[in-house]
Amino acid sequence: MASIAVLGYGVVGTGIANLINKNKERFKSITGEELNISSILVKDKNKHEQKQNYHLVTDSIEKIFNNPVDIVVEVMGGLHPAYEYVKKALKLKKHVVTANKDLIAEYGEELLDIASDNGVTLNFEASVGGGIPILKPLMESLAGNKIFEIQAILNGTTNFILSKMYAENMGYKDALKLAQNLGFAEANPDSDVLGYDAARKLSILSTIAYGMKVNWVDINIEGITDIDEIDFEYAKLNGYIIKLLAISKNKDEKIYGFVKPVMIKSDSYLSKIDNELNGIVIEGDAVGNVFFSGKGAGMLPTASSVFGDIADIIQNKNKKNIKFNDKEAYIEKYWDEKSDWLVRIKTNDRLNTICNLSESFKNCHMYTSSVTQRDEVAAIIRNEPEFTLDSTFEKLSKLSYVTKIKKFMIL
Amino acid sequence: MASIAVLGYGVVGTGIANLINKNKERFKSITGEELNISSILVKDKNKHEQKQNYHLVTDSIEKIFNNPVDIVVEVMGGLHPAYEYVKKALKLKKHVVTANKDLIAEYGEELLDIASDNGVTLNFEASVGGGIPILKPLMESLAGNKIFEIQAILNGTTNFILSKMYAENMGYKDALKLAQNLGFAEANPDSDVLGYDAARKLSILSTIAYGMKVNWVDINIEGITDIDEIDFEYAKLNGYIIKLLAISKNKDEKIYGFVKPVMIKSDSYLSKIDNELNGIVIEGDAVGNVFFSGKGAGMLPTASSVFGDIADIIQNKNKKNIKFNDKEAYIEKYWDEKSDWLVRIKTNDRLNTICNLSESFKNCHMYTSSVTQRDEVAAIIRNEPEFTLDSTFEKLSKLSYVTKIKKFMIL
């Protein structure tokens, strides 16, 4: 029998308890082992009185570790005390499964080392892409590939908001409120809407894919809080959709990564990833592009990945542990490829702004459509690297008549 | 050091040899083990004189087994002698990796039992979906799910042909010839164009997903040889695309499966799977829909999956073996859900045929467009189960003026 302690009994913890109970018979018939939840850690026992497994609930981490336990499942979220508890569990030679992307992005290297030193496994499939099998396929099935690039939609909350803004012409604030009402966004949505959540997930994927430590704080991060209805009107004029993309690439062992709103063509794979879904494209030298998508969060999809991790530990007890490479990645500040861009410049002098743009860029098509606002110039600039754009815009932004510059990469 | 014998030195065998050589250093640094190709089995040594690894080439299976070898990679294809060689390897307690879907669909259960009895592993990721990681995610990452349905495009050859017929208005024969010229179709394309290849892959996926033996011969199979340009014109009129879909589902432990050309809406995931790509949607009770896509065949994508299988064996030497359940699935002859259908009836009496159709189906919309041929009636029939259609068509086909009936499910 495999004894499981669950830390956290919120939405995901409840899903896991249900899934383990549901799969008891089937799992035993496949592996010969029975899964059993021995205890569940909560902050406040009183809140869980009505729940099915109330007799297993405790508010004492000591009790958790004093019970016989083989696998600790951490689904509390947040950095502390998750970090301390997971570290303690690993040092006590308990296997750990976590769904916590903050924890892995911040302390993954250290915790994987501790796991390895103690001969136990730390699995974290659910930390990226929710229910989508992605980390294990990347680490194991695609082991023969040198990975060049990752393009992904990794945050369901922002994808939901952008989908509503696109499909129903909602403003950002209304779409955020709807997401909050439906439980897709938290009361404090900062980590999602500012792009931090996606950046943490991208750093986990990139660290594994490139075999180098890609810290999430080194990724260029831009959230979705500044996107307005006019941006979507421009996007639609061109048949584009705006998505918060998380992209990293490895070019000659230099890494470039960003999380930002990008205009993508409406016939691309990622353009079809709507609402709370996630999607990930991995490009490897042998396999070419492989695409994965599914539900990126939620009670049962997350529990599905956690269950897979538990099954993995039970079925492969002697498995070699993965480690994050401690070699720090060399991070490029700029994407060195040429792209097309959509730019919007708020200005008190349209004519001069248009002249400036025309002089600065060889291939610059000004918008003259009805979307264009009186106090702005909008243009598509083709085939320029980001660096050229940014250095030109730095000069432009110093002109007295230019008040704001906004740019979108077009992919 | 892990010693690998490769059976077959065609396109895929060459890809594997290249990938193993390329990954030597990296693999050793990750696992501490060196991969080494000890011998390569070919039919005719003279044909391979110019190849890099000619010194490893042998035409004697005895030599292969007399060399020290840990893992046998079977990429000869076909049933015989692949079956005999793989069986012998397993009995000699060699791990086996194969890319051979015919072999696994036909002899998978027996071979997995032999592997298990001999304490070795038989891996076959590349047998379905080429480079796409699908079998391992299904077996391991999604282990906590009851799988309800699989919808997939599993044959790159037919998908290429149908993509060309759709995008370039080519006839079937021209598109097949193009596929053959580009190496996407074999000189004898029967196994692909008649749907057998897709059915074998669907049977492997379904056997794993539902934990019951789904024989490929029990799957309803229809190929693409009868599809013509007019079918595509009707499809386009409605915004549909024609794809050879492989679908199975588990409803109350009864299995239904088919491979046939289906009209699908052009905004669905699978409609974006063009040319030689494969795509697979798996529906699980916890995870919901998960979607995988990528290159379904080819030298390096196949080698990518084979390499993942090899790495898996080396890193998990004590891994428990999977088995195919020997419980035969109960196979339903008919899909019991209502669908929409496009039907084309060749007839010498259009008026009477239209009357027949109108009387038989409540919701039947006749085509009156320019596509409609003089000697045929075409119609969309909504919300009818396949059984009703087939029994009506059986009667219709006996009428003297009806010469041919063709139907497409619309999904």
From TrEMBL, chains A, B:
Residue stretches making up the Homoserine dehydrogenase catalytic domain: 133-310
Pathway(s) annotated for this protein in UniProt: Amino-acid biosynthesis; L-methionine biosynthesis via de novo pathway; L-homoserine from L-aspartate: step 3/3; Amino-acid biosynthesis; L-threonine biosynthesis; L-threonine from L-aspartate: step 3/5
Gene Ontology molecular-function annotations: homoserine dehydrogenase activity; NADP binding
Binding positions for NADPH per the UniProt entry: 101
EC number: 1.1.1.3
Enzyme class, spelled out: oxidoreductase
Keywords: Amino-acid biosynthesis, Methionine biosynthesis, NADP, Oxidoreductase, Sodium, Threonine biosynthesis
Pfam families: Homoserine_dh, NAD_binding_3
PROSITE patterns attached to this UniProt entry: HOMOSER_DHGENASE
Domain Aspartate/homoserine dehydrogenase NAD-binding: 8-125
Residues at which NADP(+) binds: 7-14
A Gene Ontology biological process term: methionine biosynthetic process
InterPro entries hit by this protein: Asp/hSer_DH_NAD-bd, HDH, HDH_cat, HDH_CS, NAD(P)-bd_dom_sf
Active-site residues, record numbering mapped to chain: 201
Reactions accelerated catalytically: L-homoserine + NADP(+) = L-aspartate 4-semialdehyde + NADPH + H(+)
Binding site for L-homoserine: 186
Similarity section: Belongs to the homoserine dehydrogenase family.
Name recorded for this polypeptide: Homoserine dehydrogenase
Organism: Clostridium aciditolerans
